[in-house]
């Protein structure tokens, strides 16, 4: 049932994430039109109160606000390029995963077509939408963000990064980069203890609080990096870290597992040690990352 504060909104793309976004809108009482290439994917949302559109054009014409949650950058253009005239004068919020440059290209395309554009990066899995911990990053039109923030907050904590449409994507992918490396580290540890008969579940019970505690070190590393002085007292030196990591690598090899995950970190350290910075802090490996071979 719609309310006095209801926004007419159309959602294009009903994969797991698009369906979750649409469901949150319907539950909040917004007049929601949905479209997907495979029509059957709309059935659950229609049962909850959404209206199914036969075509993407019908969905666009139904609402002043259009949400795109499609497969990729090419899909956005495939679906929306033929509808640029229909979209003119409307608002497009694109939460499809794209690179920063692709987001900027879409913003330029939208501006040329007279479409108000906001880009979003979703820091959540579908089951988290509307739940604590869900976060969505936005950049592009400040006016669009301000106007629709109450609606956007239905999905998760909304953070705006500025008019540069590529910034939300940049933050999104940078945060995911840290996540994947962290996950790989956990997998390495689980593989390391497995030959001793330790299950992954048992290891996770120890790893989760440890990793959470270590995340508290980010601000300390950040202060050193932003200050540009890797000789600040109180840091673990690269030489010490290299010895410690060498021991972990040797133990990993003894356990008969791959050392690829940690060897990557050691290579980053070794480049700085070879350049004469072994006495400086571990945070200096960011210089190896900033300046690839």
What does this structure look like?
Helix 1 links the parallel strand 1 and strand 2 (32-35). The protein is built from 13 helices and eight strands. It has an eight-stranded mixed β-sheet, sandwiched between helices. It is of the alpha/beta class and 293 residues long. Helix 8 (167-193) crosses helix 9 (200-215). The model has no long low-confidence stretch (mean pLDDT 96).
Key phrases:
293 residues, alpha/beta, 8 strands, elongated
How would you characterize the largest beta sheet? 8 strands, mixed
Residue share in β-strands: 5-15%
Q: Name the shape in a single word.
A: elongated
| Helix-and-strand structural type | alpha/beta
Subunit organisation of the chains? single chain
**Averaged pLDDT:** 96
Strand order of the largest sheet: 3-2-1-4-5-6-7-8
Spans of 5+ residues with little confidence (pLDDT < 50)?
A: none
What is the count of β-strands?
8
Order of helices and strands: EHEHEHEHHEHEEHEHHHHHH
Rg, alpha carbons: 24 Å
First-residue to last-residue Cα separation? 59 Å
The count of helical stretches stands at 13
Secondary structure: helix percent: 40-55%
Brief summary:
With 293 residues, the protein is of the alpha/beta class.
């Amino acid at each position: 049932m719609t309310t006095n504060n209801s926004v007419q909104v159309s959602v294009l793309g009903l994969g797991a994430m698009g369906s979750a976004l649409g469901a949150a809108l319907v539950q909040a009482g917004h007049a929601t039109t949905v479209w997907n290439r495979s029509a059957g994917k709309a059935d659950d949302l229609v049962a909850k109160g959404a209206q199914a559109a036969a075509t993407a054009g019908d969905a666009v014409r139904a609402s002043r606000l259009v949400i795109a949650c499609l497969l990729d950058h090419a899909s956005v253009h495939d679906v929306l390029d033929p509808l640029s005239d229909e979209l003119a004068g409307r608002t497009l919020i694109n939460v499809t995963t794209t690179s920063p440059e692709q987001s900027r290209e879409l913003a330029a395309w939208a501006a040329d077509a007279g479409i108000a554009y906001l880009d979003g990066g979703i820091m959540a899995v579908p089951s988290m939408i509307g739940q604590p911990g869900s976060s969505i990053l936005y950049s592009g039109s400040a006016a669009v963000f301000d106007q629709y923030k109450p609606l956007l907050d239905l999905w998760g904590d909304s953070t705006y990064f500025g008019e540069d449409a590529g910034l939300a994507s940049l933050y999104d992918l940078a945060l995911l980069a840290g996540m994947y490396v962290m996950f790989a580290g956990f997998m390495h540890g689980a593989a390391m203890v497995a030959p001793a008969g330790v299950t992954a579940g048992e290891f996770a019970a120890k790893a989760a609080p440890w990793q959470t505690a270590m995340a508290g070190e980010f601000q300390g590393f950040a202060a050193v990096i932003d200050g540009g002085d890797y000789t600040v007292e109180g840091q673990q030196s690269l030489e010490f870290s290299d010895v410690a990591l060498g021991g972990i690598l040797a133990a990993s090899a003894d356990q008969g597992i791959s050392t690829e995950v940690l060897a990557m970190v050691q290579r980053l350290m070794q480049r700085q040690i070879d350049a004469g910075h072994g006495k400086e802090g571990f945070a200096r490996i960011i210089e190896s990352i900033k300046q690839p071979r």
